[in-house]
Amino acid sequence: MKFTATLNIIGVNPYVHVPDKILEYIFRKSGKRKGAIPIKGTVNGVPYKQTLIRYSGDWRLYVNTTMLHRSPRRIGEIIKVSVEFDPEPRVITPHSDFKKALNKNREAKKVFDGLPASRRLEIVRYLANLKTEKALEKNILRAIHFLLGKERFTGRDRP
Predict the structure, then answer these.
(1) Of 15, 34, 46, 85, which residue has the fewest beta carbons closer than 10 angstroms?
(2) How far apart are CA 20 and CA 1, in angstroms?
(3) CA-based max dimension of the chain
(4) Residue 20 banded pLDDT, cuts 50, 70, 90
(5) pLDDT bracket for residue 159 (50, 70, 90)
(6) In DSSP terms, which residues pair with 66 in a beta bridge?
(7) What is each CA distance from 138 to 12, 115, 133, 134, in whole angstroms?
(8) CA 79 to chain CA mean position, Å
(9) Whole-angstrom Cα distance, residue 141 to residue 138?
(10) Which domains are seen in the chain, by residue range?
């Protein structure tokens, strides 16, 4: 299903509202109206995989920089979006180096295990998408420091 939408922002997160007709279609296909709903499609012709999320009563499609280059700087732009339910399972396993770092630091592991599933996934996904070993090593250390309450990570304050 295709639509055009104005790119908005909430906090630091660019997003578009998905039209009600399309939401109803996705709800029927996914079999649910709550929680995160996996979707796929295109933004201005570029393929993406994403999750529809309801926040403050509204369903939003968050548009990150891999979906739309420099998206935070393009607020107000009208973009072309296609969207459909994505039934493929999405499993992201923590990087082995991150597992090792957690096992070496019991306090950080305890905090990590106590985080909501969505926050744990956010950290694991962030680390999984890093391109270089140097970036991974640096960000695993940042994630551990975040879990220990020593610094921010992925734009979030300490847990």
Answers:
(1) 34
(2) 12
(3) 50
(4) very high
(5) low
(6) none
(7) 23, 21, 9, 6
(8) 20
(9) 5
(10) 2-85 (2.40.30.100), 96-147 (no CATH)
